[in-house]
Amino acid sequence: MKTNLMLLLCFLTLFAGKSIEEKGYTVGDIVDNFELKSVSGEMISLDDYKNEKGIILVFDCNTCPVSKAYKERIKELHDKFADKGFPVLAVNSNDPGRQPGDSFDEMVKYAEKNKYQHTYVQDLQQEVARSFGATNTPHVFVLKKSGADFKVAYIGAIDNNSRDASAVTKTYVEDAVNALLKGNNPTPDKTKAIGCTIKWKEA
Length: 203
Known about the structure:
Elements: H1 2-22, E1 35-38, E2 43-45, E3 54-59, H2 65-81, E4 88-92, H3 104-113, E5 119-122, H4 127-132, E6 136-137, E7 139-146, E8 149-156, H5 172-181, E9 196-197
Parallel strand pairs: 3-4, 4-5
Antiparallel strand pairs: 1-2, 1-5, 3-7, 6-9, 7-8
């Protein structure tokens, strides 16, 4: 009896995990417009990027050690690709009630302290994170312009070494953007995002 119960629990866990994983955008999907408040006080929407070739959209935060490890690499991506039509847009979806260090005021301080040149917005209601299916910080979605829309071209990690930038051998996001700039599809177009889980609001 206990064996049957364990098998049932394992099955339900796998099923639940599969359902969660399947939520959100996948490669090739058109992204819905959204509008969020940036640390500059302005409301930012995808419409503001209509003249860009795409967006490097990063679900990020102030507090996660992995996000902190990638902070300079995210800034470098913006420095390298903003002028080529792929700026970084960082989205903080952590619930400040659970993670006070990710409040809007702390976001403003963090962006100023670290001299962010890229846009940093707060997804206070967590609707954008849920629509994308974001799970981690950092979790990257490279978007490409397709007519009047933005389509998902790459999902996943920034590179293959979260701990040591000097030991990176695969630059997934950089390679994806370079492929798009050449008119090609990224290969790979999906990797596993490594980082802290997004701190969801408690029901």
